Amino acid sequence: MIRRPPRSTLSSSSAASDVYKRQVRVSVLYWFLSMSGKLRLYKDKLEGYKKFHSIVKTIKMVTLAKYRQAMARTKTRDFTLRYTEKAFGAVTREEEAHAISNAKSTLLYVPITSNRGSCGALNSNCFKYIDSVMSPQAKLMVIGKKGQDSLNKLHPKEFHYSIINDMKAPMSFGYASFIWANMLTVPNVERYQLYFNRYVSAGTQRQAVYNLPAYEKFVEGLNTAASTEDKRYSFANALLENEEETIRDFYDFHGSLCTLNAVCENELSEQAARLVAVEGQLTNLTQLQTATQSLYNKTRQGAITASLIEILSAMSSLEGNAAKGVQRTNFWEGNSKL
């Protein structure tokens, strides 16, 4: 703390005045050092924000390109499932809940997740759904790295195995057939539950589930529809006229089509959600960069103003001393004459 001496002692030649001025200079020096540290901190923050902004912008451009490609591949999504809907039948939520609650064998849940994060709440919504439907009959066959890392720890007893795709190639019927073939290897399955996120718009993705019966339940449903006046009466009779191998191939083909539609929809939803998330990150970075730039400018302007005040104060002090006739002699010049 600087204590100012009485005004009567503040002459240009007094010791108290020299001590006071020295204390003022030291305090100003400390202030400048603190200001330079703050300026360096703000400058480092600005450089970090700029680098991170360029990285996130690159991610956004790559995601936008993948989003456009996935959009083009999913244009005909509803037309490919016309006969699939007739094959498996469209059921209501009540019928689906009744079939699940009365299941006596294994219920295989196949949640489709992403390999990377930064895609909103897609994966967390999937985990919440799996938590809500877990039962002693449930088994999990997970698609995607995020699902493998999380569901393997959340439900280790129900976890069967997982399939991970590197996502370097577009979703194809061969990949969907591989998933479907692995689903059929699980023994004593009564129903297959394909969970995925259905694309609605760039900012909206909805949860969806394909509830597919096992082959025995599928044939049983065809026999029931063929013997009653069901809306699938003609379709069931036409299909049952074929051989068993043909009916099995028909079942596997439309099961693979459902799987292909699910993975394509989830891929498109993932890219759309990541695009929105990255756009939010860019907005937050811009706001942080603007706020830090404002603090940097204010601190820099304060340091410049303080420097100018110190210079002007020193100049006025020197001018005052010169007006009073105070002169400093050289040390070799003395007042005594020899």
In DSSP terms (H or I, runs of 4 or more residues), the helix count works out at: 9
Task: Look at the structure and give the mean pLDDT.
Answer: 79
Strand content: 5-15%
Largest sheet: 5 strands, mixed
With strands numbered from the N-terminus, the spatial order across the biggest sheet is 3-2-1-4-5
- Percent helix, as a range, is 55-70%
Shape: elongated
Strand-pairing-aware structural class? alpha/beta
Radius of gyration, in Å, reads 38 Å
How do the helices and strands follow one another from N- to C-terminus? HHHEHEHEHEEHHH
The N- to C-terminal Cα distance equals 48 Å
Low-confidence stretches: 1-5, 7-13
**Number of DSSP-assigned strands:** 5
Would you mind describing this structure in some detail?
The chain is built from 9 helices and 5 strands, in the order αααβαβαβαββααα. By secondary structure, the protein is an alpha/beta fold. The chain has a 5-stranded mixed sheet with strand order 3-2-1-4-5, with helices on both faces. Strand 4 and strand 5 form a beta hairpin. Helix 1 packs antiparallel against helix 9, helix 6 crosses helix 9 and helix 7 crosses helix 8. The N terminus is likely disordered.
